[in-house]
């Protein structure tokens, strides 16, 4: 039971961070003032990796499943199913405002620009996931410890394994977004 309680604490915290990433995307869409829109966009980019980051927490399941009493295994699995489901949904819903914003442009190439922007954004999100998972760089460090963020970025750039991990996560993000975007499209277009 200790594992279940421990999980609720960190899972709820990570769900809140992911929700901030989603919420900022919609604030970005609703903002008209250019400077404020730009500031919200930067904050959104900082917090958006927290959505798909939830998928990386699956790494804890095998060890916990082995250590927990049989009577709590279903509860443990339920926790991770909820976490992973929220990770996928919040990622797709949180990234969708970028697509909506670009599709609002009055240009013939807006679909193409949107497609490539989503692909590029997913690779940037991959960098954010690696910074968070491997270097333990949190989104708010940009404001509270920016020198650490710069050092962590330097470490990231000079470590080939981190770059490969970020590229892999970028590919995974693209696969998830384009696979699930159509499933959520009818709900997202109402917003």
Automatic annotation (TrEMBL):
The chain crosses the membrane at residues 6-28, 35-56, 76-98, 113-132, 161-180. It comes from the Bacteria. Pfam families: DUF1361 (PF07099). Keywords: Membrane, Transmembrane, Transmembrane helix. The keyword Transmembrane applies. This is DUF1361 domain-containing protein. The lineage of its organism: Bacteria, Candidatus Daviesiibacteriota.
């Amino acid at each position: 039971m200790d594992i279940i309680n421990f999980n609720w604490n960190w899972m709820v915290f990570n769900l809140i961070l992911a929700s901030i990433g989603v919420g900022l995307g919609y604030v970005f869409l609703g903002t008209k003032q250019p400077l404020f829109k730009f500031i919200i966009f930067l904050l959104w980019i900082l917090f958006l990796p927290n959505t798909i980051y939830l998928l990386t927490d699956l790494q804890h399941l095998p060890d916990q499943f082995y250590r927990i009493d049989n009577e709590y295994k279903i509860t443990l699995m339920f926790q991770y199913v909820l976490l992973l489901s929220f990770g996928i949904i919040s990622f797709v819903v949180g990234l969708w405002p970028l697509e909506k914003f670009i599709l609002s442009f009055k240009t013939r190439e807006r679909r193409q620009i949107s497609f490539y922007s989503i692909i590029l954004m997913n690779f940037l999100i991959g960098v954010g996931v690696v910074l968070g998972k491997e270097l333990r760089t949190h989104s708010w460090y940009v404001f509270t410890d920016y020198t650490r963020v710069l050092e962590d970025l330097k470490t990231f750039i000079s470590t080939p394994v981190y770059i490969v991990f970020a590229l892999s996560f970028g590919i995974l993000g693209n696969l998830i977004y384009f696979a699930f975007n159509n499933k959520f499209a009818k709900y997202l277009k109402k917003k």
